[in-house]
């Protein structure tokens, strides 16, 4: 029997991954920065950005903590991070590697990372181990099953095709070990690892350029896998990309669930 393929599906080595980070930042950085502000990030804080992807959140954290603070940005593939910026960059696997600088961080944040990671419990334990007593963990993850549609308004064949292809991408993610119901479990998961003052909220965008561009980059990124798995054919992928380009789909995403809790002490 062959072992399951749990490699990260949306590989950072591809140019489309960089495009995705641009549009994820456009869609979600305002939400993330709002939570980080409310948790009290300020001058002198030590922050760890896990699975950072692109540079926008590490840059925002570095601005918030100033020269007396410290921001560590890690990823299994940190290719899109700037090693010369005001944050430290480290190649780090949140499942396989131990917490860097354990017990020292005021804030540990991961957005859209754990949903892709097969051993989510281990990843959470590593992040908690990095917190100082009283430090905050902020986890943000999609709950794709909560709102699985690409088009809420399934008014014609283009919208139906978009929803069919979204199901196909979700199927690929599931085969790679993603948990598409993970977002809703976050408050419980944070309490289970011993955090206190746990709260959560959700957000999802409907329509607009950033949703369109993110969808086009994602479809191009996984196109070969969709074809190889027999989950889509060239004609429908081309038609979908043309419909996105025409701006007629009002695409949406799964809700982003943001949950936070504090290490006691
Ligand atoms: C969907 S992207 C999200 C990027 C960024 N956090 C954001 O919200 O824009 C997921 C990121 O997690 C990283 N990643 C996946 N598995 C990982 C692991 N085991 N350890 C660390 N990073 C991982 C990927 O390389 C990718 O950069």
TrEMBL record:
> Could you tell me which Gene3D superfamilies the record lists for this protein?
Vaccinia Virus protein VP39 (3.40.50.150)
Q: Enumerate the InterPro entries for this protein.
A: SAM-dependent_MTases_sf (IPR029063)
Q: Name one Pfam family in it.
A: Methyltransf_23
Coiled-coil spans in chain: none
Q: Which GO terms describe its molecular function?
A: methyltransferase activity
- Lineage top rank: taxon: Bacteria
Q: Which GO terms describe its biological process?
A: methylation
Q: Where is the signal peptide?
A: none
Q: What are the protein's UniProt keywords?
A: Methyltransferase, Transferase
Query: Is Transferase set as a keyword in this record?
Result: yes
* Matching PANTHER family: PUTATIVE (AFU_ORTHOLOGUE AFUA_2G14390)-RELATED, TRANS-ACONITATE 2-METHYLTRANSFERASE-RELATED
Q: What is this protein's record name?
A: Methyltransferase family protein
Its organism's taxonomic lineage begins at: Bacteria, Bacillati, Actinomycetota, Actinomycetes, Micromonosporales
């Amino acid at each position: 029997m062959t072992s399951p393929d749990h490699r990260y599906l949306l590989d950072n080595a591809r140019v489309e991954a960089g495009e995705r980070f641009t549009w994820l930042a456009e869609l979600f950085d305002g939400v993330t920065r709002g939570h980080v502000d409310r948790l009290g990030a300020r001058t002198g804080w030590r922050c760890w950005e896990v699975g950072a992807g692109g540079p926008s959140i590490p840059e925002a954290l570095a601005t918030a903590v100033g020269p007396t603070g410290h921001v560590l940005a890690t990823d299994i593939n940190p290719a899109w991070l700037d090693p010369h910026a005001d944050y430290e960059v480290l190649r780090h696997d949140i499942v396989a590697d131990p917490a860097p600088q354990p017990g020292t961080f005021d804030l540990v944040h991961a957005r859209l990372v754990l949903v892709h990671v097969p051993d989510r419990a281990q990843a959470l334990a590593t992040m908690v181990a990095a917190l100082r007593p009283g430090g905050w963990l902020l986890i943000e993850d999609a709950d794709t099953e909560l709102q699985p549609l690409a088009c809420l308004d399934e008014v014609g064949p283009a919208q139906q095709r978009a929803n069919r292809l979204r199901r196909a991408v979700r199927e690929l993610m599931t085969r790679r070990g993603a948990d598409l119901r993970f977002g809703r479990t976050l408050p419980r998961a944070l309490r289970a690892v011993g955090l206190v003052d746990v709260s959560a909220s959700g957000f999802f965008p409907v329509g607009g350029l950033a949703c369109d561009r993110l969808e086009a980059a994602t479809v191009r990124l996984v196109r070969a896998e969709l074809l190889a798995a027999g989950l889509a054919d060239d004609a429908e992928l081309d038609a979908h990309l043309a419909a996105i380009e025409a701006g007629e789909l009002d695409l949406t995403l799964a809700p982003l669930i943001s949950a936070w809790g504090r290490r006691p002490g």
